Description:
Blueprint: H1 5-16, E1 21-24, H2 26-32, E2 40-44, H3 48-54, E3 58-62, E4 67-71, E5 76-81, E6 83-86, E7 96-99, H4 103-107, E8 118-120, E9 124-126, H5 131-136, E10 139-140, H6 146-152, H7 155-167, E11 170-171, H8 173-182, H9 191-202, H10 211-214, H11 240-251, H12 257-266, H13 271-285, H14 292-298, H15 304-317, H16 323-331, H17 346-351, H18 357-372, H19 379-392
Helix pairs in contact: 6-8, 7-9, 11-13, 11-15, 12-13, 13-15
Amino acid sequence: MFIPKDVLDVIETLESAGYEAWVVGGCVRDSLLERNPKDYDVASSCPPSDVTKLFSRCVNTGAAYGTVTVLTPSIPVEVTVFRTESVYSDNRHPDIVVPANDIETDLSRRDFTINAMAWHPVRKLCDPYDGQSDLIHQTVKTVGDPYTRFSEDALRILRCLRFASVLDFNIDTATLEAVRFLSPSLSRISAERINTELIKLLTGVRPELISETVTSGGLSRFGITHISRPFLLRKIPTKPILRLTALLWLSLNNVSVTNVTGLLKALRMDNAAIYKVNCLIRAISTPVPADLISLKQTFCNIPPKIWREALSLRAVLLEENTDGIEEMLKQTAGEPWNRSMLSVDGSDIAVLGFQGKAIGRVLTILLEHVLKDPSLNTHKSLMAIAEKLVEKMPPEPNQKSNSPESCKK
Length: 409
């Protein structure tokens, strides 16, 4: 097993001071799977107060859990004292954390067998729960009783599904039964944590596994209570926003901007994600016109890039042949689709005397001209059209025109 030199140096420093130290958790799992670990954790008998004395550059990142992050020249290494945990009154965090005497006891508190392995440069693999065997058999299984593990920390329910999705593993029968039975306890987990696990799950190899918690009420507080044809999620490109949009489309009986926005806000999605999902939902749910001008007029508020991504969703979710739409989109390459792409903006229109909502109405009219004839999208042409509108459009209340005509007495 390959472990970076800086991580081995941390272990050597701890053991030279008389402590025991092991590489643990996800980095051991990923190394055995010949994947590149994203980070490295070390479990040790060394208390945090001594870790800070042994290393010149370190940060107290988890004092309540005995964790100190050692800043090595290449990567940060989290060093956590051997510990046991008990009493999870909030279904997420342990109320009681007690130092343990050895690595086996420390591993006993971990969630899944594939994460309950440790490695030592001399003693090699410590695997008291047959995690390596479960890796070989591609199985996600809890350490000990699954009902106990999920009752301690309900987020482990989503983590179980996430690991199975990302690694393309099966889920142990007893573990899956506990996932289904205890999914309602996810209601006690913060939306931010659910958001993180949900996105990782959806972008895995088996995103359809989300149905195992949805059908058991795991996401009911967000209005997601069922999912039809979950197998379609696997056919969607592995982009988080596209898979999330597909989940909502397959889950909601009444897909609208209003209920999608509320759901995404409840999931603590950022405004950029909410905007894009809403654009995609509109692009999926609106019938596509047969001609190019009508297409541009219908979808002028959806950026062309998002429209192109929506085609992949329409092809799967609506089982639609999108070749004709793709050909029309190719014909519009570089052409303006919305007001932001016009060669004039609000400040140009204001010079003519328009104010407030009138500016928006003028820009909309100019866009309609350009959608029919893209060659009109020049500053000179659009300003000429706008000047003609000065006489045709009634002024806003209290609006004073700066046009030459308005100055005549």
